[in-house]
Amino acid sequence: MRIVLYKKENNKEVKDFILHNLEEIFNSPAKGLNDLDNINKNFQLFLIAKENSKIMGTIGIKKEGNCARISRMYVDRLHRGAGIGKILIKKALEYCKWKFNRVFLTTYERMGSAGFYEKMGFKIFKKEKDIIENCVAYSTFCPQFSNGQLQKQRATSHAVIHIWMEMIFNKKEQQRV
Description:
Elements: E1 2-5, H1 11-26, H2 39-42, E2 45-51, E3 54-64, E4 67-75, H3 84-99, E5 102-108, H4 114-119, E6 123-138, E7 152-168, H5 171-176
Parallel strand pairs: 4-5
Antiparallel strand pairs: 1-2, 2-3, 3-4, 5-7, 6-7
């Protein structure tokens, strides 16, 4: 596997990969992907994990004020747990450490990724309830259908817990290294 920088000719492949992952996670058509229309403009850094020309994972860094925001981190479902996410996040953090004092990200409680981010050094600083409107929900994600069966249900809306996490870099420590 190799980690490569995003190139404009990768746009359709990257967008399709992210759409597929979002639809798999939320079980409904993905919305709000305008940032993927011009990745070079909307991201400070965008990395792609590839194996044999197939995208295995993505991660992007956006500048928000004086902070970095990790965005669009996805790993192919069949390759989760193989260390791809860890490699991507480490590469992104290497970049962020020298450009920003703080990096943050958001995730959803039901995705189960907060523990991964905590192991990578992130701390939770806010949790809030979000309402997801008009989606197709599966019991593995939607709190309304948590009986463990993978039943497809139409939900007019349902609540999810949105988790905000951050990492603050100590610039004095970096200067000593």
